[in-house]
Model the fold of this input.
Amino acid sequence: MTSRSLLCAAFASSLGLATAGTAFASDNPAMDGDLARLEHEWARIVYQVADSGDKSDQIEALAREAAAVVQKYPGRAEPLIWDGIITSEEAAQASMFSALGYAEDARDIFLTAERIDPKALKGAIPMSLGTLYYRVPGSPVGFGDDDKARAYLETAMSMDPDGLDANYFYGDFLMEQGEYAKARQVLNHGLAAPVTPERPVWDAGRRSEIRTLLAKADEELAGN
Done:
């Protein structure tokens, strides 16, 4: 397990919706609008706020908004997904001593959403759970489990095989497992996803992360 994973420092970029195109197209337009605001604010904070103190303050405020949205739409999985995403972001801003607590909270939120609608937001739940399971340390420190991570991420890929996020997270997992050639294939497939003009900050940020991983994959493959 890398020090990056041990400190839970990767949570900030580890979670997001599995697909941009259908993320906000439910049977409740008001809810879709509230979720769109959470997503746009999340992307702005993650990709555009540089100061760590400002980022922590803003994500904490956004977490309160997300909790309110969950209360506004009881029994819906979609608000819970975004509550979990933002809770995971709080883990990234927390100290190493409290980050795991936020991660556990996020896992429990996603598991609650899974019981309501495991297919909500086109694979966002298994993708998010899979990412948590490989980013969090394993026993006895945390709940991390690479076997669970692989199963969840492969389920997410089956739900959204061409999605930018699904391919990014699965590719990142494969990199962690040392499966560099397969990771490179998956990441390149993700980059082939159409650009999403209605979510420009997320789209550009995620593609930049994929290109960074691809450079690492090329470096690893060149050295073998």
User: Anything to note?
Assistant: The chain has eleven helices and no strands. The chain has one domain: 3-160. The longest helix spans residues 200-223.
